[in-house]
Each structure stands twice: as structure tokens, then as C-alpha cells.
Amino acid sequence: MAYGRRASVVFLARAAIALAILARGIVPLGAGELRTWTSADGRFTTQAELVEIKGDQVVLKQASGNAITVPISALSQTDRDFLTKPVPAKEAPKVEPPVAKGEPKAGTPAALIARVAAEDPPFAYEPVKEFSTAPQRRIDRIAVSRDETRVLTCCNDTAGTCFVWNLATGEKVSQLDRTGLLDRAALSKDGKIAVVTDRTKIEVFNALSGKLVRSDPMPDGAELKIEDLRISDDSQWYCAITHTRRVLRRGLTDGRTFASPPIAMRGDRGGPFTAIGPLARTILMDSGDPKPDLLFFRESPARMQSDPLPVAEKVFPTAAACSPNIWSIATDDLNYYFYINRGGKYQHFGPMDTRGSLIRQMVISSNEGIISLLGDANRVQIVDLFTNQNYFPLLPYPHLEKQIGPSGVSLFFAQGNKLCYWQAVLPKQGRAIWVHAVTTLFADKQYALLDELADECLADPERFPFTESPKFDSLIDNLDSPISMKGLGPLEFGQRQKQANEWLAKNPKSVAARVLVARFHVAEGWDARGSGFADTVTREGAEKFQASITAARETLAPVMESDNPPARAYSLWFTIAKAESWDGARLAPYLARFFKRYPTYHKGHALIAERLLPRWGGDEGETGRYIQSVGDQVGGEQGDIVYARLVADVHRYYSRTGFFEESGLDYDRTLRGLAALARDEFSRNFAANYGLYFAGLKRDREQALRFADLFEDTRFGWLRRPWRSDYAYENTLRWLDDGS
């Protein structure tokens, strides 16, 4: 199920990715030959030349030579405008330029890897339209239609006016037939209906003419401040929430009215957040305790049914958003959570880190592919739910108040009476390209291409710029787990495991397929066993665990008996050895080969270090001696880096107080390795957190300040790891600030 993706998104996603996944954008653009075509919602682009227009469809020829047919309605307004110009079809086929010596041929796995490995472009908002709203003196309220074609600007004073504007041209559409103070304003999805409220009434206008259609008094003639207002996407209802926690829902065509009694507070820590669903049937409202009220409107009899949103953690929301299939909340512990409807049941995701920002506005895009968060200091985080990619765009005019638009990638703000409409086009960053490519090949069962891609990854030991893992690891990671928070299409765990087995059956010699199938067996086994100690495991769970681990070992054995198993295979092999309690003699030959081939692959070393802990049968101090031997044998700065990473991996198995004394690990060498690791931009945040954490344990103020200074960009300043609680992190910062 696509969960809200519109037809245009699905079509262009398949046209631009599934049909030409390895070819899109890899060959250089020829001058005047190609242009960028964009989907109506702005999420997908492809480089292609116009061939011809066929009725309500257009034929495009991509750089690879593939011809695709796209509905004109699925294209952006800019592309539709372009099509109104007389553009003749090409009379002769385009001659592709010769491939430069040493450059991978377009459309091959090697070309994909080259593209993914390229540096990511900078990501920032860019102006789309800026225009004056004169004769308004200033802009106090902004309401944007869901399709972002029209905007309503309001000046909130006794002589204040409200104007509707065409966002594409900046031309005035109408002036609403009202003046004076107001609380809230809203536009319908298509921008044809406007609703404005003050303390005594709610007014409905024809946004195209500005004429008043209806004026609805507040219930019982009371004066009520409106905290939230929305027009349903089908333009059948408006829904308002008052400061007294009443829900007002009125029909725009039939005048049906529903006014709830005040929704009672369950706790005493209320905040001013609400979120109204796009059909005005679902509402999230602060309850005063950690679990927000989830309100459902029932048609017959007309009433609101209230249920607490199932939030496990005791945190207090600060902002919320609703869409047909997603609820999301941001909380005061600098995290956000969301719930996705899958088959009538809502699956919980979170906590997700907001990178130190207290969120005050959330938006879920109309295609449910993006959640955007606006935090304090006007910082924005854009979460792509299809790829799990997080973007932190640079903001214009950081001192001005901002408002995220309905698309999730647009930004609206005012400079006096000038309206500013900016947009961030999600860059085709390496990780997003890689995720789309790998997961689409797997979903389309292109196993031969995946094997070819795996061979290219194994032949190239360098990592991609967006990960610390080798390329082959990145390939397996993207197949091993559901990459998208919304699921890899229909490929949930069972289906992905079934396809991995199908891949292995078609090519028993496939290294990638064997590693992937073994990984699924291991995950299945640990899921059956659970994470508790042995005395907590049920008989059925133990039997399933043993059977799955045995299946993993038998699947992976041919790879381990080959001349050059990949590092990821060794990592899985050591996991199996740990699960089956291998003795040192059985493990030694594999460990020797592993160290000779992959001396700096810390993930494999970490598994051995864990296996040597007393809780798994190792001797006291054996883990520390192994970590030291690895660092010494690697030697130099790289040895210090591996040493520091292994210390970070095993620290959670020791008590926080006296960690270095208890483990026998070298504090100075650990910090030396973290300082060297911090020079790698991708690993800087990891190094800064662990450096500050370990220096805090030793109360080494000089070193703590050194690592705290590495938090030079507040958008990436803090990750939960390695802090075991908010208190531990805050306590370290307090000590750093005042020595307490």
C-alpha cells in the first residue's frame, strides 16, 4: 500500500527510478539538449528531452535513451507552462557523447557507485516568489492553500485587511469583505474558500471574489478565542478549537453544526498545541499529561470520542500534526514520535532526535512522504519518510518568524508588508540515491543486477561519504532492514526474507544473497529468544533460536570457506559463534584471517570483545587485553582510532562509575583516538559525544572543553548515544559550565 502517495508521485517514482534506476542523471548534461522535469508535488525529478505531446500525455526521452510517457497533470506548473510553447519533436536521434577514458559507462552499477560517492550538494531554501501586499501596512497572519496556489495575508489591527494572492504570479485575487481584529484564518485546499475568526464569530468567504458567504456566531453568544482552525480537504467542513478546549465543526454546504463541551484536562501541565486532521475528523489535543488526547468525530450521533494516544515515554508534547494515515508529536525531551496506519493499526516509531531543537510547528506533507519540524531559533528539520533521510536546510533571515508550508518543503514569512515564499528542493544526495536504487532493484527482483552491484562494492574498499561502513555493508544494510519508515512498499520482514531466499535459490553462488539470508536467520533467532538472560528464555524460544542460528551458519559457511569473505560475513560469523558459544580453538583460525584482511573493521572486533566479557564466559580483563592488542597491532593513529571505537562499543557493559578503572582500558589512548577520529567530518559528532562523555566520567575539564568545542554546528550537536539518560547529559554540561 502506498499510504497516501498520489498517482503523480507513484508514476514519476517508477518512471524516474524503477525504469531507469541506474541511468538517471549519470551521463553529463548536453548544452540545450536536456531539461529537468519535476512532479507536481516537487518530490521527483528526471533529466529528459521533449519528444512529443500526445493529448493529455507527454513523451520524454531520458539521458539514457529510455522513452517514458507521463501525464501532463503529473508535472509541475513550470513544466506545464513550458509545454505551452511550440517545441518540435526531434528529427534525428541524439548522439551520446563518447565516454571519457576511465569513466564508468552510464547505466552500470559502477556508474551508480560513482554518482553516489560524489560530494553532496549544499542544501538551503531558495526564493520562489516575493511580493508586496500593499496597501497592507504589515502581515500578521498567513494562511496557505494545501496545493500552495493561493495565500491569504491578514493585518491584525482595528482597520486590518485580508487579501488573497496568487502565489505563482504575486497578483491579488481578492480582498475579503471584512476589516478589524482576528484570531485565525484558513484557506481551503484549492484556495477557493477562506475562513476568518474573531472572538465573537466565524466568517466564511468566497476567496475568489472576497464576498462574505456566511457568518456563524460563537456558541451561546460567548466570546471565544480560536486556537486552531482548518478547512477540510474536501471543502465540506471547517473545524475550530477554542481556548476553552471546545471543538466547533460546521458544514460549509449544509450548515450542520457540532459544538463539543470543553474537553477535560487529565493533567496539570498543559501546552497550547492542537492538530486537526485533513478531513476534520481526527484531532490531537494536549491533555495536560504525557498522553495527548486523540479525538475522533462521529457522524451519528454527532459526538467526539476521546482516546489517549499510546505514548510509552513520560514526555510532554510541544507540537503535533495529523494526516489521513499519520499522527506525529514533538516532545519537550527534544524528540518526536509518529504513528503510521498499517492495515487499520497504528505502528509506533520513535523517539527520533530533533538535534537539540524544541519543536513548535509540525507539518505532514499531503503525500505523507515528509514530516517537517520548525524549532526554536527558526531551525527546520525535514524528514523524508521514504528514505529515512534527515535534512537541515540553511534558513534565510534567521531572525524572522517562519511558517512551514503544506508541502513540507516550503517556507513563508513576512518582512513588513512583503510576503516571502521560499522553497527547499530536496537534493539528490548520495544516500537518498543509493537507498532508492538498491531498494527498487530488490523490490523489482533484479537479482542479477544486485549481484553485479555487490561485486562492484566488494571491489571498492572505500566507504561512501554518508556512512562509516564499507560499500558492501551499506548494500546489505539497505536490504536487511525496512529502509523507509513507511515500509519498503509491500516488503515487510517476512516478504523481504522470502525474496532473499528466492535470490539465493536463483544464484547459490551469490555472496550478497548468502550474507542477507544469514542475517535474516540471525534476526529471526534473536527475535524468538528475546534479549534477556538465559533463565528468561522459553523452551519454544530457545528451540527457535537454535534452529535459526544453525540455519544462518549453514547458509554462511560456503562464503566463509571461500578465499576472501567480506568483512560483513565475518561480523555475522562472529555473531553466530557467540550465539553457539564456540571455544577459542574453533574461533581462532577465522579470527586470524579476519585480522589479516580487515584489521581496522571495528564492528567485527567489537563482537569478539563482547564475547570475551565475563558474562559470556570470558576471563576478567580479557576484553581489555584484546582491545589493546588490536590497537597495538594496527598501530599508529589508526590503531588509536580502532581502540577508541572499541572502548565506545563495550562501555555499556560496565558501571558508569569507575569505568576505566574497572575495565583496565586506557583513558588517554581513548581520547587520543577520538580526537583523531573527529577530523573525519562524518564521525565528528560521534567523537565529540564520546569524548565529552568519557572526560566527564574522569572529571577532566580540559579535555571535556576540547570535545565540547567540536559541537560547532548546533543542528548536529547532540545524539543520545552514549548518554544513558537526559540527566547524565545535562549534569555533564552543568559541571562543564560551573564546575558543580
From TrEMBL:
GO molecular function: cytoskeletal protein binding; identical protein binding; protein-macromolecule adaptor activity; ubiquitin binding
Gene3D superfamilies xrefs: SLA1 homology domain 1, YVTN repeat-like/Quinoprotein amine dehydrogenase
InterPro entries: SHD1 (IPR007131), WD40/YVTN_repeat-like_dom_sf (IPR015943)
Domain SLA1 homology, residue spans: 33-85
Name of the featured protein: SLA1 homology domain-containing protein
